[in-house]
Write a structure and sequence with these properties.
With 527 residues, the protein is mainly α. The N terminus is likely disordered. 77% of the residues lie in helices and 0% in strands. It is found in: Cell inner membrane; Cell membrane.
Length: 527
């Protein structure tokens, strides 16, 4: 009976922490989105859904997302093998190199591909795939590193070729990770904003950019609401599929310890390593092109960051925008850590509850709903709260925290779920309360992942563009917003400033990611 009591104690109080992120989502996500959809539906939204143009947008959105997902999976698999199975000198640098594209600001990547390819459908697909190779490589590589090689060795000893061994033994075992990664990549590509805005122009639009156009430029709330409904329905479907695949992946990781370690490639594996090397080179190319372009005029672009651009294009200097970015990202990261850790602890405590997958999916929803929808919803709802947040500088960190919180959950939750439940039960049986169990058992084991989540969340908030571009006031514009405005305005000086600002953002991103990689060595978690 004592053991039963011990098993029951740790799950009760920590589960209540889930009320904190749920309350935040209710006020700063569900309420604004519901308000703008309700206001929009007062118009003739059904007519918008019946238009051929709407379904052409849906077709292009799904098509480019599917194509980018396929490219990301094909490019990410060799890199996943490299990270999981090959002994590498400077492995942390390679892992950081793979992760850097994922956390670069969308305007930076869009500008890089525009300088290389000029724009168009192919540029959109490749840019979205560029962003998401890391998701495939890290998610699949994380499971691949835990696969028992004895099954593969047995197949090889029975005469199976390397290819047949991979397709019949390894690939089925990797299916949970592949499904989880593909769902997340498709979601990110379908809701891509900055990349499509910069590379698609007026000719190629997705649901996300069309919602922005109808809300900001045409003031067509009915049409924007109808498109938002389509987007939310598609996002929920993808998230449900992704949650199921993710749970299967986490179960596989929990059942298997890390494999016996990496080793040097042999035979046909060298071809896979070569393919991974080509992918890594292609990941470096757009980044390198931006750095080179930033020095086209010598150091003129960097010097110009102390001003407001050609003929006063900006309301703040480049360095003031950088400080705005640092302040907003710090506030957003602190808030996201509080919410993400609370959500992760609650999900672990409720792991056997039937609604836990629904709660997990709800926490991921902000990643898939249009940032413009959320931002405009803020402007028509938050005046009802004390202090009228619509004119507050806190509005940008609140919106950024919505984006960062799901990523914190995805980094921390797998680690907490992988902790042997018997450790918690042993601590509880010795008289430790729920919070002491968390402090003495969970926190030491998850500390590195918590620090990594802080660094990862910080660079994501630093480069957030979608919601920030809509909510930031001219005097609180962040560096990504300033880059977007410089690119949209004429003048060689503006272009030089944009490339210089992009380079600075990339340097900060690389530095933080290298620190994160040192913290996360050997840890579980996505991305």
């Amino acid at each position: 009976m004592g053991a039963a009591v011990a098993r029951g104690r740790p799950g009760l109080s920590p589960a209540l922490l889930g009320l904190l992120p749920l309350g935040f989502l209710a006020v700063f996500f569900a309420w604004p989105v519901a308000a703008i959809v309700r206001r929009g539906l007062d118009g003739d939204a059904l007519a918008v859904l019946a238009e051929g143009q709407t379904w052409a947008l849906v077709g292009f959105t799904v098509g480019q997302a599917a194509a980018a997902t396929a490219v990301a999976v094909l490019a990410g698999m060799p890199v996943a093998f490299l990270l999981a199975r090959v002994r590498l000198p400077g492995a942390a640098v390679v892992r950081a190199l793979v992760l850097v594209p994922f956390v670069l600001p969308t305007v930076v990547v869009g500008l890089a591909f525009r300088s290389l390819m000029g724009g168009g459908v192919l540029a959109i697909v490749l840019a979205n795939a560029f962003f998401n190779v890391a998701v495939v490589a890290r998610t699949v590589g994380g499971l691949w590193a835990h696969l028992d090689r004895r099954a593969e060795d047995a197949a090889r000893s029975l005469g199976a070729s390397r290819l047949r061994t991979f397709t019949s033994v390894t690939l089925p075992a990797l299916t949970p990770a592949l499904g989880s990664a593909a769902a997340v990549v498709f979601l990110f590509c379908a809701t891509s904003f900055g990349v499509v805005l910069l590379l698609g122009g007026a000719r190629h639009r997705t649901l996300e950019t069309e919602i922005y156009l109808r809300t900001v430029e045409l003031l067509d709330l009915s049409g924007a609401a109808a498109l938002s409904l389509l987007q939310v329905a598609a996002v929920v479907a993808v998230l449900v599929l992704g949650a199921r695949a993710r749970r299967r992946r986490e179960s596989a990781l929990a059942l298997r310890p890390r494999a016996e370690g990496t080793r040097g490639p042999s035979g046909g594996e060298w071809w896979v390593v070569g393919a991974a090397g080509v992918v890594l080179a292609l990941l470096v190319a757009p980044i390198a092109s931006l750095v080179v372009r930033s020095f086209d005029g010598g150091f003129a672009g960097y010097a110009a960051l102390s001003g407001t651009g050609f003929r006063g294009s900006l309301s703040v200097t480049g360095w003031e925008a950088a400080m705005n970015s640092l302040r907003a990202a710090t506030d957003a990261t602190v808030l996201a850590l509080v919410l993400g850790i609370s959500a992760s602890v609650a999900l672990v405590a409720l792991r056997r509850a039937r609604f836990v997958d629904a709660l997990d999916t709800a926490l991921m929803l902000p990643l898939g709903v249009s940032a413009v929808t959320v931002g405009f919803g803020y402007l028509i709802t938050l005046d009802a709260l004390p202090g009228d947040l619509r004119t507050s500088a806190a509005l940008v960190p609140l919106a950024q925290a919505l984006v960062v919180t799901p990523l914190v959950v995805r980094l921390v939750l797998p680690v907490l779920r992988s902790i042997d439940e018997r450790l918690r039960q042993a601590a509880a049986s010795l008289g430790a309360g729920p919070w002491r169990v968390w402090r003495e058992v969970d926190l030491p084991l998850a500390a590195r992942s918590l620090l990594a989540a802080a660094g990862f969340g910080y660079v994501v908030a630093l480069g957030e563009f979608g919601a920030t571009s809509f909510l930031a006031r001219p005097d609180t514009a962040t560096l990504p917003v300033v880059i977007g405005r410089l690119v949209a305005r004429p003048g060689e000086l503006n272009a030089q400033m944009a490339y210089a600002a992009c380079t600075l953002l990339m340097l900060v991103t690389v530095a933080v990611v290298l620190v994160v990689e040192r913290l996360r060595a050997g840890e579980l978690g996505e991305f």
